[in-house]
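Practice problem: Enoyl-[acyl-carrier-protein] reductase [NADH]
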Amino acid sequence: MLMKGKRGLVVGVANKWSIAWGISQRLMEEGAELAFTYQNERLGKNVRELTEGLENPILIPMDVTSDKQILMTFELLKRVWGHLDFLVHAVAYAPRAALEGSFVATTREDFRIAHDISAYSLAALCQSAQGLMGEGGSVVALSYLGSTRVVPNYNVMGVAKASLEASVRYLASDLGPQGIRVNAVSAGPIKTLASSGISGFGGMQRHHRNRAPLRRDTETAEVADATLFMLSPLSRGVTGQVLYVDGGFSIMGD
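Answer key — structure tokens:
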């Protein structure tokens, strides 16, 4: 029961295949009490169905591009809980047209959207979360190897993930004096609603499976365990880091 008595917000659950939902299940197994946000009513229906067996789940509509909605979310958590122990950031998006072809063709608007939702949202959430977190608070964001390597068709999302990882380091520096840690978990390719929008994703998975030292796909449960570690007191001396959970693929030359 590593997370017994801990309360946290999970941002990014879309459906039962979401990495964020796998993380949520693992956290609840370890005793955590969770609140969930959803972007719109369509996704809200999925989240309500996933959490209907929980006792008094906190479900909050929140679009990470809206400062007003972010502020309202944390005001609600302050009223209901009074404090927050951890935050899981599992949000990423780029228009489908930007996830095929060449990065050089990325439009200004697609670049802005990808960075606003996938990277700036972490800073925006931390701005509000820090007031509810004290010593021992922890934030984990989900990333991918495309932040440091060129992955075909990942394009602007890779650049946005690079921005996300840089944000993790700067936020770790800013929030460290308050005893709040900020880290990222970089997962291997896993089929989710978000990844289905990447052209040629199946080929990306096959290449990963054939080249990773462990010679298999990354499993959501593995990412969930790593995130649990990063959120729990077991990683209390770790901040500003990116933990790769990809079967070793990230150490290979190609």
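Discussion: Residues 108-129 form the longest helix (22 residues). Students who identified this feature from the tokens alone can consider the problem solved.
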